[in-house]
Amino acid sequence: MPKLTSAVALGLALTLTAPMAMAWGPEGHSIVAALAQQQLNPAAEAEVIRLLAPEHTRELADIASWPDQIQDDPALTDLWHQTRQLHYIDFGSGDCHYVPERDCKDGQCVVAGLQHYVEVLSNRSLPDAERLQALKFVVHFVGDEHQPLHDSYRDDKGGNTFQVQFDGRGSNLHRVWDSGMLWSQHLSWQAYAAKLAAEGPVTLPPETKGTDPYADWAEESCRISRDQGVYPSGHVIDQHYVDAELPIAEAQLRIAGKRLADVLDASLGTASGKP
Ligand code: ADE
Ligand code: ZN
Ligand code: ZN
Fold first, then answer.
1. CATH number of residue 29's parent domain
2. 24: CA distance to ligand 2 center in Å?
3. Does residue 123 belong to any structural domain of this protein?
4. Beta carbons of 187 and 181 less than 8 angstroms apart
5. Which ligand is in closest contact with the Cα of 65?
6. Residue 21 falls inside a structural domain
């Protein structure tokens, strides 16, 4: 059966050459953005809409995956290479304790990425185009930081090299968390965001350091990746796994949405731009 054989070969080639997953899939990012936008204060919402105008949208959900999409745009190759390590953090130790010199060398991690782009977004003396770009990164990175495997400590590139069987196919653990479990619900991102919004206001976990919330969030995600059954005991992701882990992924989406709203309120929601 030559047809089947070549189809299998093609599938294998795609699996082997597929780029490493870099983020919640577009669905996860749009869900976080939509949940955030519903919770903005009126001043922050007005400033978001004003900044988004050149994109011909009023929806944060429409720009939430742009920091991933630039990898396919030849005109933005340099920006992609400058920012690709800002989508995640690899902790150097299983205690999930953030040590900047070890875990974020040269500011190359999601904690520093958020610090930088929130500062640009908040600075009203910078050009709108620069602040719009910063808005896209902030929306995206808050989402990524809440995907537990974007903040993990094992030597497997956030589960990208942890091969699994999911839905009868070969995949990897990172991809299952970025998009596989969400897709398995067969909901549009709009329907998914509406379902999560209907659960009501989310209770945020306590933050410990206070001085650096982005570091706190990374440590919290790292502990989830370590302690909440994210790593299966074997390499098959079954329904039992999804029943246990999807609620954790959904809680992270809701928490990310609320925290993103709080960041945008603080950055944009006052006349001066100062929180
Ligand atoms: N590459 C290396 N570590 C990664 C992580 N935690 N998430 C996504 N991509 C990665
Ligand atoms: Zn990303
Ligand atoms: Zn990812």
1. 1.10.575.10
2. 7
3. yes
4. no
5. 2
6. yes
Closest CA to 149 of 138, 135, 134, 164: 164
* Residue for token pair 């999930």: 96
Which ligand has the shortest distance to the CA of 87? Answer: 2
What pLDDT shows up at residue 129?
Answer: 98
| Residue that wins the pLDDT comparison between 26 and 14 | 26
> Which residue is closest in CA terms to ligand 1's atom 3?
157
What was the pLDDT predicted at 274?
Answer: 43
Q: Bridge-partner residues for 166, per DSSP?
A: 169, 237
pLDDT category at 230 given cuts 50, 70, 90 is very high
Burial 206-243 (b: 16+ CB within 10 A, else e): eeeeeebbbbbbbbbbbbbbbeeebebeeeebeeebbe
Question: DSSP string spanning 36-76?
Answer: HHTT--HHHHHHHHHHHGGGT-S-GGGTTTHHHHGGG-GGG
Q: Is the predicted pLDDT of residue 16 greater than 70, yes or no? A: no
Rounded CA separation 119/172 (Å): 35
Q: Both tokens of residue 22?
A: 């870099």
Number of domains in the chain: 1
Kindly state whether residue 158 falls inside one of the protein's structural domains: yes
The predicted structure's pLDDT at residue 23: 77
Ligand 2 (ion): residues with CB under 5 Å are 22-23, 87, 144
**pLDDT (mean) for 71-78:** 97
Query: Is 7 among the domain residues?
Result: no
Q: What is the mean pLDDT of residues 210-237?
A: 96
Contact 26, 189 (CB under 8 A): yes
Angle at alpha carbon of residue 208, lines to 204 and 214, rounded to 5°: 75
Range of the domain at 179: 12-269
* pLDDT 10s digits, 186-211: 999 999 999 999 999 999 998 776 67
Instruction: Please tell me the distance from the alpha carbon of residue 145 to that of residue 151, in angstroms, as a whole number.
Output: 7
| C-alpha–C-alpha distance, residues 99 and 154, integer Å | 16
